[in-house]
Automatic annotation (TrEMBL):
Key words of the record: Membrane, Transmembrane, Transmembrane helix
Entries under Gene3D superfamilies matching the protein: 6.10.140.1320
Annotated organism of origin: Palleronia abyssalis
UniProt protein name: HIG1 domain-containing protein
A Pfam short name: HIG_1_N
Length: 68
C-alpha cells in the first residue's frame, strides 16, 4: 500500500490539511488582532487543502474500484 503513488498522494494531502489546521489553531490561541487575521487566513487555506484532499481521495477510490 505504501508503494502505491496515489495512496502516498492521499497521505500527503491529509497530512498537509492536519498541519495547516494545527497552524491555524495555534495562531488563534495566541490572541491579538494580527494573529486572528493570520488564523483566518490559515483556516481558508485549510478549506482549500481539504477540498483538494477530498478530490484526491475520490480519485484514489475510483481507480481502486476500477481495478487499476
Amino acid at each position: 500500500m505504501f508503494t502505491d503513488p496515489l495512496f502516498l498522494l492521499v497521505l500527503i494531502a491529509c497530512i498537509a490539511v492536519a498541519v495547516i489546521l494545527i497552524l491555524g489553531i495555534s495562531t488563534f490561541g495566541r490572541g491579538g488582532s494580527d494573529n486572528a487575521k493570520k488564523s483566518n487566513k490559515y483556516m481558508r487555506w485549510r478549506i482549500y487543502a481539504q477540498a483538494l484532499a477530498i478530490v484526491v481521495i475520490l480519485v484514489f477510490v475510483f481507480f481502486r474500484r476500477m481495478g487499476g
